[in-house]
Design the sequence.
C-alpha cells in the first residue's frame, strides 16, 4: 500500500480549502468504484492535542469541517444507499457512538482469508438526508470520551471512526485520532 503525505496547511486556511484539497479528491476516488470493483478511502486527522484535528474534521458554526462537507456532497450528488457507522476506541474498548446510552460494545473479527479485520456489532444507520446524517454524527460526537489536558480543556481522549458506505461500490473512513502528545508510550 502507498500512504501519501498530502500537505501541511497554515493556520489561515479554512476548512473549505482543506476539503477542496483533501476531502473532495478522496470522495471522488471512492465514488469512482463500482459494485464489481469497489473503492475504499481513508482520511486520518493526526497530531498533538490542540492542533485543530477535531475542528478540521467536524468544523464549527460557519466553518463546516470535512465530515459535514462530505455529507453535503454525497447527498448533493444524489448518492443512493448511504449507510454509516460511528465508533470510538477508548482505553482499548471499542464502543458504538450511535447507541451510546446502552454502552454497546463493538468487536473485531478477522476477515475470511486473513486479509484484515472488520467491526462486528456496531449500529449501521441509513440516513435519508444530510441533516439526518449530520444530526446522528453530532449526537454521537457528544458521547466521545473527553478530558482536560495542559493544552485543551475538552480534549478528545478517544479515537473516532466514522465509516460511510455508498451502496456496494464505495467505503469512506474518516478517523479523528486522539491527541498524540503521548505517542512515545
Sequence:
Amino acid at each position: 500500500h502507498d500512504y501519501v503525505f498530502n500537505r501541511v496547511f497554515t493556520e489561515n486556511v479554512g476548512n473549505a480549502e482543506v476539503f477542496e484539497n483533501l476531502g473532495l479528491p478522496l470522495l471522488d476516488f471512492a465514488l469512482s468504484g463500482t459494485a464489481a470493483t469497489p473503492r475504499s478511502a481513508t482520511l486520518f486527522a493526526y497530531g498533538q492535542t490542540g492542533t485543530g484535528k477535531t475542528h478540521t474534521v467536524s468544523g464549527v458554526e460557519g466553518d463546516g469541517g470535512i465530515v459535514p462537507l462530505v455529507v453535503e456532497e454525497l447527498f448533493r450528488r444524489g448518492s443512493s444507499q448511504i449507510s454509516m457507522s460511528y465508533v470510538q476506541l477508548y482505553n482499548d474498548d471499542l464502543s458504538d457512538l450511535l447507541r451510546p446510552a446502552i454502552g454497546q460494545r463493538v468487536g473485531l473479527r478477522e476477515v475470511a482469508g486473513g486479509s484484515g479485520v472488520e467491526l462486528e456489532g456496531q449500529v449501521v444507520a441509513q440516513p435519508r438526508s444530510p441533516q439526518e446524517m449530520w444530526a446522528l454524527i453530532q449526537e454521537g460526537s457528544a458521547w466521545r470520551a473527553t478530558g482536560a489536558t495542559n493544552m485543551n480543556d475538552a480534549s478528545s481522549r478517544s479515537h473516532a471512526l466514522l465509516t460511510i458506505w455508498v451502496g456496494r461500490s464505495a467505503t469512506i473512513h474518516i478517523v479523528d485520532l486522539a491527541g498524540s502528545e503521548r505517542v512515545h508510550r
Summary: Residues 15-31 form the longest helix (17 residues). The mean pLDDT is 84. Helices lie at 15-31, 53-58, 66-76, 130-142. The radius of gyration is 16 Å.
